[in-house]
Amino acid sequence: MNHWRALQYVTTFSACFLLSSHAFATKPRPIDCSKAQSIQPGWTAEQVTRSLGKPYILSFSRENMRYGWRSADGVDTLDVTFDLANPKIQQRIVIAIKGICGGKQIEADPHPGIDRYNVEIPGVPRRIEFDGNSFYVGYVAESHEDAMRYVEYVPQGQSLKKWRNMIAVFQHTDDSTPEKHLELLRQRAETTGNPYFRQLYMSPQKDEAIAAMPQMLDGALEYQIARWRTTPKGTLATVYFSRHYLDDKGQFDRDAYVAEEESRIPERVAALKALPSILPPEIGRSGNVTLTVDGTETGEVLVPMPSPAD
């Protein structure tokens, strides 16, 4: 896989475990209904487990974390969903509760105090300006397996699933260098017979490199301009992506699209250099935060709302 290609989400993390006695319950057990009814949105995972005990079911997805409790006969059930914003599992916040216990329904909507529109992520501005346009952060992730953390920005009205422009920032945590990333891209161009690879810059100290190249995708042509820099925490890559999708007839003019993108390389390189400091945070070995209107990659990116004081 290409370590800096934004759409290939390397941290798609979906799992469901029935946990052993060394972690949580070995089998379903009675649920204390009065305690189950007392759980409220805004509680931490630590508060929930302190009240109900350790869950029988633990599941993760790209959007949330869920704890589940079940009685042995399956009549009483409780599912508690948590936001992923906090990297510490025990400090994650309850956003939804649903179940039935003692014949009574248990259900709670997200706490009004949890403002996903205005959530702050350390080191990651919610909005950035690029080439005269505003982009909003839609995805923050960390992949221990791929030794990197990254952030993706798209314009208002676009989604993580189908976008036309994206700015992504990748913090590589391995021993890679700007020169190494540049050469990997060059080799890929040679291997695939791509004649459009462009080396745009290599600093004398080899601590900064810039390159551009288009690539064909399923149903789209994508153009990328990448800038790699050496930082104290590893190689930091800032990447501009543009996508051109097939028309109604399943066609597009590749040469015209590439020529248009190449003509704008100077201004887009300047825009990459003008970006504010963006430092993808540590959010867990395979953690992620999705900031879209419905919490999925098909929803439009969230645009921060002005506070009443504004």
Description:
The chain is an alpha+beta fold and 310 residues long. The chain folds into 2 domains: 15-108, Beta-lactamase Inhibitory Protein, Chain:B, domain 1, CATH 3.30.1450; 116-290, Protein Transport Mog1p, Chain A (3-Layer(aba) Sandwich). It contains 5 helices and 15 strands. It has helices at residues 33-38, 45-52, 178-192, 254-263, 265-274; strands at residues 15-18, 57-60, 65-70, 77-82, 94-101, 104-108, 127-130, 133-143, 148-155, 165-172, 198-202, 208-217, 220-231, 234-245, 288-290. The strands form 2 sheets. Strands 7, 8, 9, 10, 11, 12, 13, 14 and 15 form a 9-stranded antiparallel sheet that branches. It is elongated, with a radius of gyration of 23 Å. The relative contact order is 0.16. The model is unreliable at 1-26 (pLDDT under 50).
Concise summary:
By secondary structure, this protein is of the alpha+beta class. It has 5 helices and 15 strands.
Taken in chain order, the helices and strands follow as: EHHEEEEEEEEEHEEEEHHE
Q: What shape does the CA trace take?
A: elongated
Number of helices: 5
Average residue-wise pLDDT: 83
CATH architecture type of the largest domain = 3-Layer(aba) Sandwich
